[in-house]
Specification:
Elements lengths: L1 H17 L5 H6 L4 H34 L6 H28 L4 H23 L13 H13 L7 H24 L4
Helix pairs in contact: 1-3, 1-4, 3-4, 4-5, 4-6, 4-7
């Protein structure tokens, strides 16, 4: 489900950022700094996205409780799994925002996000399978983490894990560092 949420975040970010990106040139000519534009667009779109996600979680819990037979601990496991998934989804949203602000074409955005969030664990597993010490590096890839989270939730053995937060933080910091840095130097045409 994490990959679908990242796809939804892509669509959501495209809708909120896509139209206004053409007005950036005018905002800069009126004296608004590029840094302010980048960070304010991120905060506004992220705020709206988090509100929609919170409403979706509450709707999912409400429907699950009213339509399905109650099972002990499912809601708490669902909250833990959602909390584990949060940094990965946020890093996807931040990466998409950085790519959109840099005016990278949509098809390349989709390819970059798909490679990082779907295929990267398989690539790391293939590359490092023979190297001792690095052969478990693939477990930190977003795709592997999301799959593990789903399997743990289905087996009712989900627990809070630091790996989700480390991976989400690393992707977010790199995306923000590159995105904000390149946006401040980018030509506005």
């Amino acid at each position: 489900m994490g990959t679908q949420i990242i796809i939804i975040s892509y669509l959501y970010n495209s809708i909120l950022t896509g139209k206004d990106i053409m007005l950036t040139k005018q905002a800069i000519s009126f004296g608004i700094s590029r840094s302010v534009i980048f960070w304010s667009k991120l905060l506004v779109t992220l705020g709206y996205f988090l509100l929609v996600c919170a409403a979706g979680l509450l709707l999912m819990i409400g429907l699950g409780q009213s339509l399905f037979a109650e099972d002990q601990g499912v809601v708490s496991n669902f909250f833990i799994a959602s909390f584990n998934m949060l940094p990965i989804v946020l890093s996807g949203f931040i990466l998409i925002h950085a790519l959109k602000m840099l005016k990278i074409a949509d098809i390349y955005n989709i390819i970059i996000v798909a490679v990082i969030y779907i295929f990267f664990d398989d690539v790391l597993r293939l590359i490092f399978r023979q190297v001792n010490g690095l052969n478990e590096l693939y477990t930190f890839a977003p795709g592997a983490l999301l799959t593990d989270n789903l399997m743990d939730f289905m087996n009712q053995s989900v627990q809070l894990d630091y790996r989700y937060w480390v991976t989400g933080a690393v992707i977010s910091v790199i995306a923000l560092w590159i995105g904000a840095g390149r946006f401040t130097k980018q030509d506005m045409d």
